[in-house]
Amino acid sequence: MTAGGMWDAWMMTAPDAVLEHAPRPAETPGPGEATIEVAGCGVCHTDLSFLHGGVRTRSALPLVLGHEISGYVRAVGPGVDPALVGRPVVVPAVLPCGECDLCRAGRRSICRNQVMPGNDRHGGFASHVLLPARFICPVPDAVLRRHDLWELSVVADAVSTPFQAVKRSGLAAGDLAVCVGVGGIGVYGVQIASATGAKVVALDIDDAKLEQARAAGAHATLNVRDSSVQDARKQVKRLAGELGARPFLWKIFETSGTRAGQELAYGLIGYGATLSVVGYATGKVELSLSNLMAFDAVAQGNWGADPLVYPELMQWIADGRIAVRPFVERHMLADINDVFDRAHHGGLMKRAVLVPA
Ligand SMILES: [Zn+2]
Ligand SMILES: [Zn+2]
After folding, report:
1. How far does the centroid of ligand 2 lie from the alpha carbon of residue 97, in Å?
2. Least confident residue range of 109-118, 217-226, 328-337, 340-349
3. Looking at the chain, which terminus has fewer C-beta neighbours within 10 angstroms, N or C?
4. What is the CATH number of the domain that holds 35?
5. Tell me, what's the pLDDT at 347?
6. What is the pLDDT of residue 4?
7. How distant, in Å, are the alpha carbons of 95, 240, 254 from that of 182?
8. What is the rounded average pLDDT of the residues 143-151?
9. Is the pTM of this model over 0.85?
10. 19: closest CA among 344, 331, 334?
């Protein structure tokens, strides 16, 4: 880790290149910053988009990727509560400034001064990371009784982002929630929707992922690999009926992060529907915006989550409404290139978390 005052790190140096092992000198936290010793860092679809999908990081390369970070605070800079040192924490994937007009308007996740680790600054595929301390979320003891710190890294995005989407959608008990794409983020979306008391229909093109979604609380599943959008819509309507949910006012969550998933999710919009776009896909979808008008429907998205939802989210994890452990798998940070490769080729059933040696 810090042999000779060095931090272990893996850098993205160029698109499609292998990540390079590049230990770098330890840094000292400046005003408002904290040093976190990484316990785990989740591998997100967005990391793959940076490496293989032509999406550019906001900071120039080379850059340490990774924005799903948990760990222990080891040092803090001026202006940060020294009581934070030694605390186990989760670092929200979006760290707002807390001071600007957008932050004061309650729109922290789109703060233009935000820091996203592994995008604006070096991220968590490292032994240590230096970040703004203000919105780092201490992990309550009640959560640590059920979880290891490394696995809570995925709370920073894979859990918090669908949590924010469900909250913003206004999903309520008895509603129909349709989750499109239930690998990665989606399986947490299923749990959160189900724990809200909604009837949950999970859609995917992979039977194994659908089975996992059922274990996570989906009430019905549908493999849409060979279905047209019209077919899928008919099937979902049938399932809604069987589950005793309404044929309208659906809350649709796009968590596949694929163009096909986005097309399907939009095609499911009916009367009074709310579509929440959670996954990120490059590429464009052709759609009729008039459907939003004709169906009096809403389409919205959320960029990560507001750090202020974390205390409630931690409560849900503490009391078991969200189970994190069954849907993550632990890998050594040194195996990062192999793990990225497998994630890139869809070879992982669970979210991979990289743990430093
Ligand atoms: Zn992510
Ligand atoms: Zn701000």
Report:
1. 4
2. 340-349
3. C
4. 3.90.180.10
5. 77
6. 58
7. 26, 18, 9
8. 95
9. yes
10. 334
One domain for residues 147 and 240: no
Q: Are residues 35 and 181 in the same domain?
A: no
Distance 320 CA to ligand 1 centre (A): 23
CA of 344 to the centre of ligand 1 (A): 14
For residue 88, the CA-to-ligand 2 centroid distance in Å is 25
Q: Are residues 106 and 164 in the same domain?
A: no
Q: What is the CATH number of the domain that holds 235?
A: 3.40.50.720
pLDDT at 267 over 80: yes
Domain range enclosing 217: 160-301
Q: Which ligand is nearest to the CA of 47?
A: 1
Element (H, E) at 73: strand 68-76
Give the pLDDT score at 216: 96
**Identity at 310, one-letter amino acid code:** Y
280 CA distance to ligand 1 centroid (A)?
9
Measured from the alpha carbon of residue 109, the closest ligand is: 2
Instruction: Output the CA–CA distances (angstroms, integers) from residue 44 to 56, 254, 286, in the order listed.
Output: 15, 16, 26
Q: 203 C-alpha vs ligand 1 centroid, how far in Å?
A: 21
Domains in the chain: how many in total? 2
| DSSP reduced 3-state for 175 | coil
CA–centroid distance, residue 164 to ligand 2 (Å): 18
Query: At 34, which helix (H) or strand (E)?
Result: strand 33-42
Taking only the tens place, the pLDDT of each residue in 39-76 is 999 999 999 999 999 999 999 999 999 999 999 999 99
**Cβ–Cβ under 8 Å, residues 9 and 124:** no
